[in-house]
Structures are given as C-alpha cells and as structure tokens.
Amino acid sequence: MNDSRPIRAKSGTNHEGTSAHNRRVMIDALRINGALSRADLARATRLTKQTVSNIIEELERDGLVNSQEAVRKGRGQPSTPYRLVPEGAFAIGLQIDRHVTRAVAVDLLGSVLVRAEAGLPPGGPSTGAKVILDLVAGVRSKLAGIVQQSETRLVGLGVAMPGPFGIDGSGDDPWMMGAWQKFPLLETLTAGTGLDVGLQNDAAAAATAERMVGAAHGLDHAVCLFVGYGIGAGLILNGELYRGANGNAGEIGMALLFAEGKSTPLEHRASLASLYQYLSADPADPDLHAHINDLASGGDPGIDTWIETAAADLRWSIHLIETIFDPQTVILCGSAPEALVNRLIAAIGPLLPSIAERRGRTLPRLQPGMADPWSVALGAAAGPIGRAFDPHFAAILKDSR
Amino acid sequence: MNDSRPIRAKSGTNHEGTSAHNRRVMIDALRINGALSRADLARATRLTKQTVSNIIEELERDGLVNSQEAVRKGRGQPSTPYRLVPEGAFAIGLQIDRHVTRAVAVDLLGSVLVRAEAGLPPGGPSTGAKVILDLVAGVRSKLAGIVQQSETRLVGLGVAMPGPFGIDGSGDDPWMMGAWQKFPLLETLTAGTGLDVGLQNDAAAAATAERMVGAAHGLDHAVCLFVGYGIGAGLILNGELYRGANGNAGEIGMALLFAEGKSTPLEHRASLASLYQYLSADPADPDLHAHINDLASGGDPGIDTWIETAAADLRWSIHLIETIFDPQTVILCGSAPEALVNRLIAAIGPLLPSIAERRGRTLPRLQPGMADPWSVALGAAAGPIGRAFDPHFAAILKDSR
DNA sequence: TTATTAAGTCAATTATCTTGACTTATTACT
DNA sequence: AGTAATAAGTCAAGATAATTGACTTAATAA
C-alpha cells in the first residue's frame, strides 16, 4: 500500500543563490569585456551601483579581482577599472587519449602554467591509472612551486577522454577505449587526488577551451567540430556546454553516412583514425604526427584522396550542424597536425548553402579553432573553472541532491 | 576617439528573481506530480516549509492553485494537497499552415477549450492577415463566453508556422512560405490583439505540446521528430525548448541525404509534401487528409514504396538525433493522418543500433506523439504558458533589454 | 571660476528566505 | 482508553542581500 513514487521537482533558490549568480555574472562580464569599472558593471548587469560595489569588494577580498589605474574619460570622476586576477583560481586538466595522457595546470584566465605528458602503457587502466595519478601529482606540485597558495585556490580536476560513455558493447571495438570505460575512473581520481573531478568527452573539452580562450569566447551558441582520432561535436548552447541526458551529446562521429552504396559512420571516413588506416600507419608511432604534417605540407599526392573525401564529409557535417543547431559559428578543432588542418579547411570551402547564410552575419560560418595538442587538456581544466565561476542555471539553485 | 564598443554581460538578479523562480518551481512541481502538500513541496524543492506556505498562499490568492480534501496517511497531521487550477490562466495558440490556419484557447493545464479553423486564401498575408485576426478574435470571445475573467488571465498568443525564419532566398521556394516570412506578422498580431505574441516553428510547437501534456511531460531531454508538410525537430534540452541563435534550431528537414548518387534534403523524401508529390496530389485539396488515411489503412500498394523510403530516411534521422542529442526519448509527431503514422512507425522499426541502446533504459527509444491536427496549435498556446509559469534561467534575471 | 557630469559611498529601507519554537491532528503502542 | 510518537503546518523574530536617494568626490567644459 505504498503509492509513493518519488516526487520530481526542480530545486528552489534563496538569497545565496541570488548573490552567487550576481558574483558569477560580474566575473563573466570581466572575462568577456576585460577590465570594467563598477559603474560599467552596474549598467551591464542591470544591478545597482551599490550592489556592484559590495560584490566587487567581496571579490577583491577573495583575490579574484583587483583594481587598476584610474582612467579619466571626459567629465566626471575618473573610473577605477577592475580586472580578473589570473592567480585567483587554478584547475588541473587531464586528457586521456589512446596512447598518451596529458595534464596541465591552468589559471582563472585560462593560461596554461604547467604541462606534462606521458605515454600510456597498452595495459589499460590497470597500469595506466598509476601513470595518470603520478602525472597529475607532478603537475600539481610544479604548480605549487610556481605560485603560492595554489593548492587552496585549486577548484578541481577536469578529465577529457574519448566518448561515448556508459555504453555496453564497446569492449572490443578498437575505435573506443573499452577498458577505460568500464574502469571507475572518477572514483579513482577523486580518491587519489582529493579534488573535485569532472568528466567530458574530448570534443566537449575542445569546445570548453574555445569558449574560455578561443573562437567561442563570449558566444552563446557555437559548435566545435572536433577532428581527432575520432570525430565529435562540442556543443555550446545558451552559453553552456550541452551534455545530453547521459553526457554523450555531440557524438556525431557515429552519425551514418550513405556513400558508395553502404552506410558508414562519419568517423570511419574523416577522422585521424581513418587517415592512419588509409596510410597503413601505426597510431602508436610517436613520429606519426610529424610525418603526417610533412605529408600534408609537402603536397604529397598520396594524401590528397583522403583529404578530398574527408573534406567532403566535413562539409556535409558542417551543413548538418548549421541546419540542426543554428549556431552563431562553427569552429573546426582537433588534434590533427596544423598543416593537415589547413589543407582540410582549404578543401572544405566553399561551404554548402544553408540557413546560416543570412544578412547581417558578423561571424564567419566556419572558423579554425586552436591547433594545439594541449587544447583538449586545457578544455578539461576549463571545465571546473567554468563550473566554479561561470553563470549558469544550476549554480543558482540550492544544492542539488 | 570613441573606443566604447558595447559591454556585453548577462543580467544579474535580485529578490524578485528569487521569488519568481520559486513560484515557478512550485507550479512546475504541481504540474509534473499532480497535487502535493506544502510539506511535499518543501521537500521536493528544498525550500523551507514556511517559504512554501507563503508562496502557496500567494498562488492561491492569484487563483493558480487551490486546496483539496485533506488526506490522512499514517501518523501525524493530515496533509492538505494543493493542485493547479486549470482556470488559473489561458493562452491562445495559432497555427499558420500553407492552406489552413487554426486557433485554440488553452488553459493552464493544457486542455483545449475552444478551437476554430479557417482556410487561408492563396493571396498570402495581404488577405490572410485579416482571416487570422478574425479567427483569433473569435476564439477569444468564445473563451470569454465559457469562462469568466478569461481576458484578465490571458497570458499571451503563441504562433506556430513552418520555418525557417529570417532567411533571404525563400521567396519563391514553394517548400517555404516566403510571403509570410517577409510579412511583419508579430507586429501585426501584437497590434491587432494587444496580446504578448511569441513565434516558434511548427516542430518546436509540437515539442512544446508534447512537453506540456504529451510524451515529453516532465522530461528534460527529448526530441520531437515532426513529420508534416516539411520535416523538423523540436528540441527539449535541459528542460527548455532550444531555439538556436536565430530561432531556427531543429530544421532537420534541410539536412542533406546522399542517396541514388545525389544529395537531397531529407524533407524532399520523407515529408507529407513529398508524398503529395509522389501521389501527384493537390496539397490544397481538403479531402486529401482523408484520402491518404484511406490509402494507408487500406494497404494500397501504391503508397508502399513511399512508406518504405520515408521510413528508411526517418530511421536514419532518429539515429542521427540519438547520436547528436543523446535524448531520453525521441517522439514521432506530425500532422500526418493517423493510419499513415502507424504504418510509418511500423515500417521504421527496428531502430538502428545507437548509443541510445543502454542498460537501464526506462523510456522507449521511439514513442508516438499526439496524432491530432490540433496539436501544433496547442503547442503554440503552450509557448506563452510556459514562458509565464515554467522555471527557466531567463525568468530569474532582471528584465532583459 | 563655476557649472556640469559621472563615479562611487553612506545609511536607511525593503523584499524574501530561514530559524526554532509552537500548535494541531492523526496513528501506534501499551 | 490513555499516552507517546509522528508529521503538517503556523508564528514571530532574525538574517541576508538588493534597493533607494541623498551625498561626496573628482574630473572637464564653458
């Protein structure tokens, strides 16, 4: 006689939620616009001067902002601009890839202060977990050597690895990292570091990085098409990373393409993995990156066919993304060698006609993102920083269960 | 010497924002769970009993909730459940389609109280605008005849029509409604009705309807695949309709399919329009709906080929949606005749393997939505009601500019 | 030199949620 | 039957954080 299925409801909010939101909004405004005076902040956020003053004082006490030289601009009292203090917070970012793992320490503004890399032994998590924990510990202690108080200002550890997550049958598909998917990674890292740990897939991390310091900075609707070992899309929707119901949103690499009479996942045709296969190269070869860069920049005809099909498929993907998401811009990111990315971008154009062709566009339809092998780790670190400081709905609500 | 580009920032919030959010959260909880006591609400929303009591009193004064018979359930004082009052608010929904326009009056719970339909003369907005305004006025006065105080409780007019919006070259594409796109519809309706007017495309409206009273009720991540004259997807992401940067998100009908050696927009192959073309039927024929229903239910072999290709394309679309959005469920909606929808659903299965196949699923991957020609108008009306009463980020912020 | 303008502060006020003690109504236990 | 336990809900005071309007400060324009 128990009719009590759990009651579902969104969480309410209170004064603390209000003030937390207002603090975040001010930090966000400083991040997007650079230094601003209290009066500027009041106008921009629609808060009163007094409220802004109170919050600025609090942020200054917390070491998150500081004042700069007053600037005279016409009549009236000169304004005192405030800016974010880079050393106000730090985060560790960790990228786990097929054959390599990278860790970075990043500050509030997204500058990378420490970076470290290690090869991942083929044994999977059983041996890899220790490598990863050592790498993180190393980065952390190096950071502590560079800046004081870094430990107390560490907001978390962000992890990025190829998705999708939580799928059953990925055990022996070499396209996925089956063994890692089953491993209790978050628990291990939380226990091993004592930090707040978050996880995203590599495309999402690339998008998070672009939003913090790249082409998506200050944008509310942007999609990063990530070309790496696999292919994914990192979705910035309404100013936040969109994760989907199970954290797998954007796994566009598994979208099916119909070509040559059969259906093939996109990432079997246009990813680096497909290029390795096309070249019969060993993905674990440490010189491969440089080799491919040479091939691409040297105009080796042996790579042209692959570039052509891949570009055609990416052109289609961009059209699809524009059609489905209606973003302000699409950003081409990836861990591909720079020369290859340039060749791809050149080969992708001109873009297919789409609803993105509209009067009054200010942003290009397609932009190159960061071509830096560290950008995924940077994005991983940007996760905890965003969670701690960016305005978003969940941050207003009372602690979610 | 003017370096002042506008400062961009999100809006802050204040006490009013807090209380507005908490009111919305309580309304949402009552909508999802049915009647709840103050104590239940306090637990579910994580607000204090006292706060809940205050807000409930306010909502009761406003006529949005009322109390029911106290229920004894075990020890302790019996609880008094509160429920939403259907007559607490009303909205008008307007669907503008190619050859017909429909208007409904809907209450707070999404029940349709009044419905009216009119043919749209081929002249476009120049003659159609009056038809529409008359239709709305008629529905409105009928509503006033049924319930008292309906006018003061009218929260707005929601409009649904085929997208995409704001595109240049749609003037003579017969697949779009070019003339209507250029017409200042919102301004005309605002001026003609004095109501708050909102616009969404028909797929979005279908999703809004499913979320209020259909298969997406209480879900935070659901995608409605809408098969009508065109094809679109209505996106419920993070519990809200996602619109994209320009209100055109989800226009999946323009996604390109590669088949038979050429690329074709999805909606040229799987929409009702494509069926009309396949049958060489006149879309303006008022008997067409019934005729197609007969064809589909009678098992006429003449329609089989179309159903087969359309189902294959829809199967692919569902796979794409699952892959890209990672929703809790996909809902097949549309203005197609019921027999046709049933045939399509039967022909679509089995679904392609995707990341949506996971242990512990509770919802089906694909569900049928409302098969009611009035559901788009209902969804249009659900727009203003959601804007007025559902919890969402924007509602917390101070008036956006 | 003075009026004007804009930035920023001060002190009182207001809106709203929280707290903890209290009341009420019911069932469970002895 | 009487009493303890439990849960719903109220009361009144308190805490938090934004708002208001007058005021101060510091610059330029006339």
Automatic annotation (TrEMBL), chains A, B:
SUPFAM superfamilies per UniProt: Actin-like ATPase domain, Winged helix' DNA-binding domain
MF term (GO), any: N-acylmannosamine kinase activity
Keyword field contains Metal-binding: no
Species: Rhizobium esperanzae
Top-level lineage group: Bacteria
Keyword Protein biosynthesis: no
Key words, A-Z: Kinase, Transferase
Pfam family, any one: MarR_2
Protein name: Sugar kinase
InterPro entries the UniProt entry points to: ATPase_NBD (IPR043129), HTH_MarR-typ (IPR000835), ROK (IPR000600), WH-like_DNA-bd_sf (IPR036388), WH_DNA-bd_sf (IPR036390)
Boundaries of every HTH marR-type domain copy: 28-75
GO biological process, one term: N-acetylneuraminate catabolic process
Region (Disordered): 1-22
